[in-house]
Each structure stands twice: as C-alpha cells, then as structure tokens.
Amino acid sequence: MGSINPTKYNRWNYDTHSPITTLVTNRPGVPQVFALQQNYPNPFNPTTKIAFSVPSQMKVELVVYNVLGQKVATLVNETLSAGGHEVPFDASRLASGMYLYRITAGQFSSVKKMMLLK
Known about the structure:
This protein is an all-beta fold and about 120 residues long. It has a single domain, classed as Immunoglobulin-like (Sandwich), CATH 2.60.40.2550. Helix content is about 0%, strand content about 50%. The chain is built from no helices and nine strands. The chain has strands at about 10-15, 20, 35, 45-55, 60-65, 70-80, 85-90, 95-105, 110-115. The strands form three sheets. A four-stranded antiparallel beta sheet has the order 6-5-8-9, with no helix packed on it. It has a three-stranded antiparallel beta sheet with strand order 3-4-7, with no helix packed on it. It has a two-stranded antiparallel sheet with strand order 1-2. A hairpin with a 4-residue loop joins β1 (about 10-15) and β2 (about 20). It is globular. The model is unreliable at about 20-25 (pLDDT under 50).
C-alpha cells in the first residue's frame, strides 16, 4: 500500500486498483461538467491545493470561510478558461480548525470542508 502522487494522479479506482488520471491542471481536454474536488492533502498544515473544472470560459469565484461563516480568503475571483484548474491555499496565518471552501461559477455552486491541523 503506497500513497498516490497528487502531482501525477488525482484519484484512485478501487475496482481496478489503479490511479485515475482524468483531472490534471490545465489538461488538453475540456470537461463536460462543473466539478469541485476535495482539497489535497486533507487534513493539511499549512498548505493545500484545491482542484476544480469548468466546462466553458466564465467568471469563477473560490472563497474560503471559517465555521462562523466569515470570509478568510478569496483564492479566485476572475474569468477563467474552460478546463481543469488547481489553486494553492496557504493557511499559515489561520488557526487550526475546520474551514469551508465554496466555488461559484455561472449557475454552479458547490461547498467542501477541509481541516487545518497545526
């Protein structure tokens, strides 16, 4: 049992016991649907990466909130091209705990949790 190299593989297929390489930053193919991936690593200290994909060029906003609903960071707030994207998040100035990140792109919105352990 080894770990998956996140710079080469993004997910694991437990049926075939092999990595899935479909989502890579700025991959040549265009995704057909919106997607927000779980940050990696999670839990993290103090940096992590958040991957997402958009099917067409559009304005994207990716924001991090604390559990009180207060905005602690805006990671993306711009028009991005269609495809897969990966954004680093440095939480070295934040306290340990659970944080939420939300992507809004067009009519799509999704939220995931992440845990910062120091």
